[in-house]
Every structure is written in C-alpha cells, then in structure tokens.
Design brief:
By secondary structure, the protein is of the alpha/beta class. The chain contains 12 helices and 15 strands. Strands 2, 3, 4, 6, 7, 8, 13, 14 and 15 form a 9-stranded mixed beta sheet that branches. The structure holds glyoxylic acid and manganese (II) ion (3 copies).
Length: 429
C-alpha cells in the first residue's frame, strides 16, 4: 500500500453506476412474500435467505471478503493497507415490513457496496479496512425486537437473555428460526456477535429520509445529527368473552373495548406532550377469538412511541401504563401484560464524522442540511460501540413503510458519492 491523498479524489473520479444499482434494487425487491410494488421480507424466511445470498454474491463481486456472525449479520471487508487499524464501516438492513417499499435499508446496503465499486474504479486504496455490513432484522416484524442484529452487536445483555425464550406468532423460537436459515449453529454462542468498543473507527449509514423535508426544500443530502429515542410496548387485556347476542351490555367485560380505549389514550397522551416531536402509534391490535358474534375475551396491542426528548417520551409511557390500569379496572378486565419491549435512548452523531460528511457534500457540490432522524436505524446501536454518522437522501413525498416508497436514481447516486468520499476520508484518518 501507499499513503493516498484523498484530495486526489475530486468529484470527477467518483463515478457511480446508477443504472446497475437500480437494477439490483429492482431485483432484490422481487425476493418478497407480497407482489410488486410492495415488498415483504421477514427475518429468516425463504425470501430473506435468498436475498442474503444475493447480497453475499454482490459483496463477492465487489472483491470483499465475506463473513457472517451467529445471527446472520453479514460483513464484507475491503482490506486496507494498514489492516491492524480499526476499520471504518457502513451498512444498513434489507428486511422489509409487510407491504413496504424497496428502498428502506436497501439503499444503505446496495449503495454501500456500490460505494466500494466506485472507490475501486477511482483508483483509491483505503488505509483502514472498509467493512460493509448487512444487519439482521432492523425491523421488529417477526420477533417484536427492532435492530436485532445491531442491538446484539452493541452488546445488549438484555437482548441476549430475551433471545433464549423469544418466539414468533407461530410459536417458532428465535433459535430454531435462526438455525433453519443456517445460523446459531453452536449452542449459546450468541455472545460471539458482541463487538468490542473500538472495533470500528467510524460507522456511516446511508438511508432514505423517510420524511418530506429534503424533497420539499430541494436539498440533495441530509446530514443526521441525532436519532430520536424509540420505545415499544406490548399490552394484553383479558375479559369474560361470551355470546354477542345473549350477554347483555351491563354484564360484559369486553377486552376489545379496553384495547380500543387504550389506543385512544395513547393518542391523547402523545398530543398532551405539547411537542410536535412526540409521536405514538398502535400498529397492532388483535382480538380473540376474532368472531363477529363473540365478545373479545382477549386483546393484544403493540404501541410504538418516540421523541427526540427521552424524558418526554418516558412520561408518555408512564401515562399509557396508568391508563391501561385504570381502563382495566373500569371495565372489569385484567391487564395481563404491560411489557416495555424496548425503551431506547436517542443517539448523537459524532462531530468529526459530521464534518467529513459536510466536506464530502461540499466537494461534490451537493446541497446539504443538518437534520434529525425521526425513524430509528441500526446506527442507533452502532453509536454505542463506534463513532456514528448518517447520510439521508430525498424520497418521494417522504413516503416510507408503504409500497409507494421511491427514491430517484439521481438522488441515490448522489448519496453513494457522498458515502464513498466520506468513507475515503475516514479511512485515511
Ligand atoms: C424502523 O424501520 C422504524 O424506524 O420504525
Ligand atoms: Mn423501516
Ligand atoms: Mn430502514
Ligand atoms: Mn428504521
């Protein structure tokens, strides 16, 4: 190797093959449980395994050496000329929630691989190694756990413990599901997934904004300064059930109505925070037995709430808990479970990475602005073990988590160039 002057990497040298990248995005989208334009790709299912194979193949074609950990986080390494230094990493996820789009996460995996191709074509040689990471299950779809792969990499003992007993809604255990996809082969070896602090010199994730600001303002690049604090809660009510005709209204303990009332209480407490930054969603509401002529004897809700202010979000959680108890009491149902699955703090981007992203944007003549990420990302957890930064690109009307999600090849290519130049800068440090 030889010391590389990154200033030689002027904008002309960084040529992204946008057409090929779009082809890859479209091809990956076909590995889905639901028809185009929607994408559904759930952890350790057949389509997830096929999609993983595709990613490993593209990493191989980019000349990366590929390894996988015990839960299927995939790493592709371009070795630097000083391979003993902590590497610089980039990556995202390719799992997709039911009926979502083809860009969420995918842009940050395929785009990161293309950033390597771009750097190679420019003649660049990294000093620190560059790792491209495909994280396992950023989405909580199957096991109710968000950022499963990165959370475990960040050394979450709580998650490690939870994974011993976690099952999906078909009662398939996490470990059995992982084994069926070829992972978790050795018993109790999941601590091997943990990363030591200092394993990476920097981590940078490229992602669609999932909000309307960049498109509205006609700005090419969002530079993320902080990621909002997410939490999720599972709630179960149990009531008497019974015949929908025969049990008269005064004699009911309707678990379904308790759930409906709690869903409205979530909205009320969120609005009462007084800040536009507080949000809350009941995205899952299941009734048992789910028959038109049977009073619900059980109900199940899953609540997502987030804020850029952790304390304010925690206040909402407390109020929702109080409401769940008072609603149960008033309706004569049992609050069988109120389980806070995660209550994560926000993450702050690293100053020197922010600076690197700003100068990369400027050198590439791309308009940019500092912004907050309201969605969570694997970066939220990578920030616990590494300095972190994120690059946002505009997406159509800010749409995400639905089939209409779209980002233009031009915007994606701009993001890949900023990522490539940022990785180049960080790898020379
Ligand atoms: C995950 O994708 C989230 O931000 O909800
Ligand atoms: Mn998502
Ligand atoms: Mn995502
Ligand atoms: Mn996300």
């Amino acid at each position: 190797g030889y010391p590389f002057d990154e200033t030689q990497l002027h904008s002309q040298a960084l040529i992204v093959d946008g057409e090929n990248l779009q082809k890859q995005i479209d091809e990956l989208a076909t590995f889905s449980d639901t028809p185009v334009p929607s994408v559904t790709r759930v952890l350790y299912t057949e389509n997830d395994v096929i999609a993983r194979r595709y990613i490993k193949m593209l990493m191989g074609l980019a000349g990366l050496s590929v390894r996988e950990d015990a839960v299927g986080n995939i790493f592709g390494r371009w070795e630097g000329y000083e391979p003993n230094l902590a590497p610089v990493a980039s990556g995202s996820h390719i799992d997709a929630i039911p009926y979502s789009g083809k860009y969420d996460g995918v842009v940050g995996v395929l785009g990161a691989i293309e950033s390597i191709n771009t750097l190679r074509r420019s003649g660049f040689k990294p000093r620190r190694s560059l790792d491209i990471i495909m994280f396992t299950s950023e989405e909580p779809t199957r096991f109710g756990i968000s950022c499963l792969g990165s959370r475990l990499m960040a050394g979450s003992e709580i998650l490690l413990k939870a994974l011993e007993t976690t099952v999906d809604n078909q009662n398939i255990s996490f470990v059995d599901a992982a084994r069926s996809a070829g992972y978790a082969q050795e018993k109790n070896d999941l601590t091997s997934v943990f990363l030591k602090k200092g394993s990476y010199a920097a981590f940078v994730e490229l992602h669609i904004e999932q909000g309307p600001i960049l498109e509205d303002e006609g700005i090419s690049i969002g530079i993320v300064t902080a990621i909002a604090a997410p939490a999720s809660i599972k709630v179960d009510f149990e009531g008497g059930g019974g015949h929908a005709g025969a049990v008269l209204m005064p004699y009911r303990n309707d678990a379904g109505l308790a759930a409906a009332q709690l869903a409205l209480a979530v909205e009320k407490h969120v609005l009462e925070s007084g800040s536009i930054d507080t949000v809350g969603t009941v995205g899952i509401l299941d009734l048992h037995p789910g028959a038109i002529n049977s009073i619900p004897s059980k109900s199940h809700l899953e609540i997502d709430t987030r804020d850029i202010d952790e304390e304010r979000r925690n206040k909402v959680i407390k109020k929702v808990h109080d409401s769940a108890e008072s609603i149960a009491k008033a309706r004569g149902v049992r609050l069988a479970e109120f389980n806070i699955i995660n209550q994560d703090p926000p993450a702050i981007s690293d100053d020197s990475i922010v600076k690197a992203m700003i100068s990369a944007s400027e050198e590439l003549n791309l308009s940019h602005k500092l912004m907050i990420s309201r969605a969570y990302h694997d970066s939220l957890f990578m920030a616990r073990v590494s300095p972190m930064g994120m690059i946002f690109i505009p997406c159509f009307k800010g749409y995400s988590h639905k089939p209409e999600e779209h980002a233009s090849v031009q915007d994606i290519s701009n993001g890949v160039r900023v990522l490539a130049l940022t990785l180049a800068k960080l790898s020379q440090k």
